[in-house]
Amino acid sequence: MSSPLITARGLTKKFDEFVAVDEIDFDVARGESFGLLGPNGAGKSTTMRIIGATSQRTSGNLTILGMDPEKFGPQIRAHLGVVPQQDNLDMNLSVSENLYIYGRYFGLSRKFLKAKIEELLEFAQLEEKRNAKVESLSGGMKRRLTIARGLVSEPEILMLDEPTTGLDPQARHILWDRLFRLKEQGVTLVITTHFMDEAEQLCDRLVVMDKGKIMAEGSPAQLIKDYSTKEVLEIRFGSERNSAMADQLRGMCDRIEELPDRILLYSEDGEALLEKIYSAGLHPKTSLVRRSSLEDVFLRLTGRTLVD
Amino acid sequence: MIISAAVAIAEARRGRLGERVYSGRSRAIFERGYIAFKSSTWMVILSGFVEPVLYLFAFGYGLGELIGNIESNGLSIPYAAYIAPALLATSAMNGAIYDSTMNIFFKLNHDRIYHGMLATSLGPLDVALGEIGLALLRGFLYGVGFMAVVAPLGLIPSLWGILAIPAAVLIAFGFAAVGMALTTYMKSFQQLEIINIFLLPMFLFSGSFYPLTVFPEWLQFIIKALPLSQAIHLVRGLTLGQINLGLLGHISYFIVMIIVGLFFTTKRLNALFMK
Q1: pTM of the model
Q2: Smallest CA–CA separation between B104 and chain A, in Å?
């Protein structure tokens, strides 16, 4: 394997006394889709900004394409496409002007950009909106424009901070499709998300972050295998009885998690476990057997759910 | 490593002085301003041009009828010719301050335009210079526009007066650099009003409408130290052809404003975006 594109060792960021990123280690390989999964405030965006050479680390080592972002900020930023969590499109400019001027910021020529803008408008499915003001676009369109804008410099690494937060399901799927295409073209993706389904869909490998620390690392399937069971049985007895019933259920399965509205029972065979519960004379109001997800991994690692 | 055009451009600057804060592409910021200007800020530009012309007619000719000629450094000139250079200097100041405070505050805190710019291979000094360049363009347009109105009226007695246009640009540069630096420290729109509280009295008492000699000496001393007074005396010296070493002093004053303003703007933008 070639040397990693991004290497972080003991990466730490403090804001006064608050430790936002706490001695994290990770590598990102060329062409992979790497995810930072965690709840709000886990330190994901701060990590992204440090990689993006727009924030300085407090301590630790970081190399991006063999360079230290503190010494070679502009050179590193020329390799990156950045899609921030909060859209910062240029509201005074039209869709195609946004792409044009962003290319100009990188110093790209008008001739190059003329062809590039056409390519990007097609990629972002915004050809018909080329002359529209940004304000008139829907949330999904703005997001696609921001991604297209990040691609104007033909970056090797695309950094996406919460790419689909606030979008409706249809807009999310369109966006995921676009990101898959980029991955096929060999663009390395670094993605933060607090949606487990997004992490499972998009990431080859991810780190689970909480309170500035990395709790676990691996592919989505590997993490589920390591930190959860194959299946999960979700049952509800009604909010008042859940906790009383949980005591009786303990011992019937590998692990049990009590949430305010439901009980999660971890087992290799959910249906069999449900039968066992019925034959013990317990009758939950509702029951559901599903496969384990990253949400369960996170719950196991931190004792909390991803989306509060 | 893939060498895209953007990477080749950024790599070409490796090792240059100040490469971390300046990429030599402030013209891209300037270009953005031009594109945005084409569609939006026309009215603001127009009002900035009309305002001094209105003052000129209302006071220069209205009040001027009552006042007649006025003495300036031993020269007797019509009242309108006395206030015209002050109005030019003031409009250069107002335009530069509007651009560098309101406009920049909005881009900094609301639209987050600079966040986008600084995620590219640009540096904060590119942004500062580009934005200030726009303020200069505005100062230049005001200068040319105002001269086109007052010169045919015979209010620019000296040929040196043509230099009032570059002087307006220099004044705009100084105010824009300091205005932008101050804006980067402001936390709310309300705080920007503090700047405006200074501007109006400075306009009224800086020798715009009558010589400073009407004030007691200690007050004259304070007023002369204010930037608008420096600006007015620079432009008036040129339009009236009263060329002396004092003008160099005024020019130096603005060069210092530019250097100090740019230094703090770059420093603050670095602190705001690279934290």
Answers
A1: 0.85
A2: 13
